[in-house]
Amino acid sequence: MAYDNSMDTLQGWPNGVSIVKTYERQFTNQSNHTAFPYVPDSQSFLNLNLTAKPTFFGCYSSNLTDLMKEVGTDTVPPLVVYVANRPFTFDSNTSTFKMSYDNEEKLSLIENGFAVSTRKNLTLDDEYRACIGCAILQRSRERLGMPLGSQCQKCFDEYCWDGSLDTDVSHNINFTEDGMTNDSDTTNASSGTSSLLSSKNSFVNTWGVIIGIFVICMIGF
To answer: Which positions fall inside the PLA2c domain (predicted)?
Structure first.
């Protein structure tokens, strides 16, 4: 799983640039022929709601053969479950320059992290835990030539990136309560974080302050 807690947008939320850079790194010498599945550009991450709910990348290894040839490897890239920080119960886009938190803030951050990781305690999708299981077992299933099954097919239809792009920079994308986005000008980001980010130079506005991305390669057992 890849948890993205970056502060990339002016409102202090991720836009996928961390995982985009991970994808691009495989085409450099430092990758050592380690492949990573296709991902869209950061603008598409926002416009397609890919930061509003979990997104699976590299769902089907049959779609990755050209990528493996380009990288120069026989090892199938992992299926990556991408989960971006977003506000469900608390504005968790706090600045890394904030050095102290009271107990209420600490508990609120943990509660929101739980909501992000569990699709709001499964209230947005009570089958999400089954979908995580499908992602974990997918590479093993493919190696064994086993059929996908109706449950996993349903999960992949819901969460797998379909390869589409939307690079329209005129979109105003913000979170809504149920985890999707809309075109309003409002945001759930805290004003303090927005002010901090808007005062930084263009490099920081582009990259944000990356406070964590942890990738577990789901290659099966």
So the answer is: 1-166
Nearest to 8 by CA among 175, 207, 191: 207
Least confident of 57-61, 160-164, 186-190, 208-212: 208-212
Say which residues have a Cβ less than 8 Å from residue 144's Cβ, sequence separation at least 6. Answer: none
**Neighbouring residues of 69: CB distance < 8 A, sequence distance ≥ 6:** none
Token couple for 218: 């789901």
pLDDT of residue 180: 65
Cα separation, 221 vs 70, in Å, equals 26
**Alpha helices in the chain, H assignment, sequence order:** 17-25, 42-47, 65-71, 103-117, 128-144, 150-159, 191-198, 202-207
Which H helix or E strand runs over 6? none
- Assign residue 111 a region: left if phi > 0, alpha if psi is -120 to 50, beta otherwise? alpha
Q: What percent of the chain has pLDDT over 90?
A: 69
Helix (H) or strand (E) holding 55: strand 55-57
Burial class (CB in 10 A: 0-12, 13-18, 19+), 11: buried
Length of the chain: 221
Domain ranges for the chain: 2-215
> What value does the CA radius of gyration of the chain take, rounded to a whole number of Å?
18
